[in-house]
């Protein structure tokens, strides 16, 4: 695993109420239609949308398709998704730049309709 996630198997310390994430899932090679899948993730200090996706992939579901790379500065936009937080307006964001609050409910979808798998899109 990446050094950002820490030691393999070691889960970061939980520092707040868990986050509920509904994530768009679709693999055109096997799925007839898209679905939303719900995950409950322990909140860890300074968690972003991107680190939330990494937590899900590392500790809950290694079938989740997302671009698991980032510049860390909000420049490259490989982490771009459509995001809705706590029932607010859905918007296109760079996942590495959006901090999450403990106890949030987020809905994460691909930023365009050109889906390769899950929230991975063709540029």
UniProtKB/TrEMBL annotation:
<dbReference type="GO" id="GO:0051537">
    <property type="term" value="F:2 iron, 2 sulfur cluster binding"/>
</dbReference>
<dbReference type="GO" id="GO:0009055">
    <property type="term" value="F:electron transfer activity"/>
</dbReference>
<protein>
    <recommendedName>
        <fullName>Succinate dehydogenase/fumarate reductase N-terminal domain-containing protein</fullName>
    </recommendedName>
</protein>
<dbReference type="Pfam" id="PF13085">
    <property type="entry name" value="Fer2_3"/>
</dbReference>
<dbReference type="InterPro" id="IPR036010">
    <property type="entry name" value="2Fe-2S_ferredoxin-like_sf"/>
</dbReference>
<dbReference type="InterPro" id="IPR006058">
    <property type="entry name" value="2Fe2S_fd_BS"/>
</dbReference>
<dbReference type="InterPro" id="IPR012675">
    <property type="entry name" value="Beta-grasp_dom_sf"/>
</dbReference>
<feature type="domain" description="Succinate dehydogenase/fumarate reductase N-terminal">
    <location>
        <begin position="22"/>
        <end position="121"/>
    </location>
</feature>
<dbReference type="InterPro" id="IPR025192">
    <property type="entry name" value="Succ_DH/fum_Rdtase_N"/>
</dbReference>
């Amino acid at each position: 695993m990446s050094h950002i996630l820490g030691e393999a198997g070691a889960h970061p310390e939980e520092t707040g109420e868990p986050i509920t994430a509904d994530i768009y899932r679709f693999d055109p090679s096997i799925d007839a239609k898209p679905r939303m899948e719900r995950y409950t993730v322990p909140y860890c200090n300074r968690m972003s949308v991107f680190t939330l996706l990494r937590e899900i992939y590392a500790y809950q579901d290694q079938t989740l398709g997302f671009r698991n790379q980032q510049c860390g500065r909000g420049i490259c936009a490989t982490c771009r998704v459509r995001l809705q937080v706590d029932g607010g307006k859905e918007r296109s964001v760079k996942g590495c730049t959006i901090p999450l609050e403990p106890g949030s409910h987020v809905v994460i979808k691909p930023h365009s309709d050109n889906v390769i798998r899950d929230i991975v899109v063709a540029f």
